[in-house]
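Researcher: Please translate sequence to structure tokens.
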Amino acid sequence: MQFSGYIFDVEGTLVDCVPQTILSLQKSLSDFGLTIPYETLQLYAGLDGDQALQLVAPGLDASARKKVLANRASHYRQTYLDKVEALDGVRDIFQSLKKSGGKIALATDCKGPELRRYLSLLNVSDLIDAIACGDDVEHGKPDPRLVGLALRKLGLPGSHVVMIGDTPYDAEAAQEAGTAAAGVLSGGFSKETLLEAGCLTVARQVHDLIAALQPDAPRSSEAAE
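Model: Translation complete:
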């Protein structure tokens, strides 16, 4: 169907930063004496940080988990934030969606310096109708409240809106919030994983995905095979 609202995740979907966020968490865990393989952390990229730590480091109590996450954020900001880049074609896609009457929201767990940096990189603030971020909710995805807040800010029925993200947790949050879900491979998850999580379609990056969801959008390559 033709959607009239589009809710986008940011990290891994619009900004190429997933490896850097994983490496930052790995470094933070190492600082606390824990060695966790990158491949294990990749499985939980995009999951609410506290939930992810409960899975990969079950011996940490709530206070320790909070310290690990704060350390991770500090390391990411100092080491990677100024070096990450936006994925290709985001402004062109957003312009096309707006020209066709679409409304656009961001639903991202990030906040503060990260969100400001990403918005600067993307150069799409004039095209965004609503933002729901980590400052607005206590829990990250797959908790649906972040996507639900973005949906309410758009003022559209959930059946007319699709949430676009790079993780199965984005898809789970979207469905719980009452929207459709679509996925991109830029976050490191497989097509099969994203489809199993409920994505109606999956493509390599956002420009390919929107070309499938909205035929008039710019097309640069085929959707993921």
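Researcher: Any highlights?
Model: Strands lie at 5-8, 15-16, 85-86, 103-107, 130-132, 161-165, 180-184, 202-203.
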